[in-house]
Amino acid sequence: MKSTMYSNVFETLEKAVSEEQLAELQQTINEGGYSAFYQLQEGFHEKVKNFVDEDGPEVQQLIEKARKLFPEPKKFSPSWQSLWDELAETTRLKIRVFQTIPKADRDGEWQIVMDNPVAVQDIVCYPGLEFMDAAYMFGYFRPKLEKNEYIRLQKIQNVIMEFGD
After folding, report:
1. Which domain holds residue 7?
2. What is the rounded CA–CA span in Å between residue 40 and residue 63?
């Protein structure tokens, strides 16, 4: 029930322009606690995942608006301690991908590859992605890289794929 009750908090944040509207939203989420804030952060994850080139600055402003309303998201859950920084960095990196790869070159299959060539561990590969999903994943995973790890966002030009018996 609470999940449904707070399902529009992200949309409310997007539309809020007056200080009164923002204060009302802040109160609603503070009173709703974890459930309400969960819906807000879920809305942000969807927005960051799905925004297109021209929406980047708007998403950045929205993150900053929420950061001012809820400067300590860890009070709702310790796992959200760095939420605003993570969303801002993913957004920034996704925008960088958009600026690097022209729209005309974005069709086809893409993949993300991550590896640490000096460690004995498996290579991680996310194949068969649409460009928008690959751009999001690049932005999401890039800040999490550790020393000597790398991430590649690459377009697949030719594929030979076979299945075993």
Report:
1. 2-100
2. 11
For residues 90 and 92, give the distance between their C-alpha atoms in angstroms, rounded to a whole number: 6
Q: Is there a single domain that holds both residue 85 and residue 134?
A: no
What's the pLDDT at 121? 85
- CA distances from residue 100 to 54, 64, 77 in whole angstroms, order as listed: 14, 24, 36
Closest CA to 63 of 87, 39, 40: 87
Residue ending a domain, among 100, 117, 145, is: 100
The whole-model pTM stands at: 0.90
Regarding whether 132 and 52 lie in a shared domain, the answer is no
Distance CA 110, CA 135 (A): 9
The sign of the CA dihedral 68, 74, 77, 80 is positive
Residue 100, helix vs strand vs coil: helix
Ranges in the chain, pLDDT < 50: 1-4
- How many other C-beta atoms lie within 10 A of the C-beta of residue 70? 22
What would the two tokens of residue 11 be?
């949309």
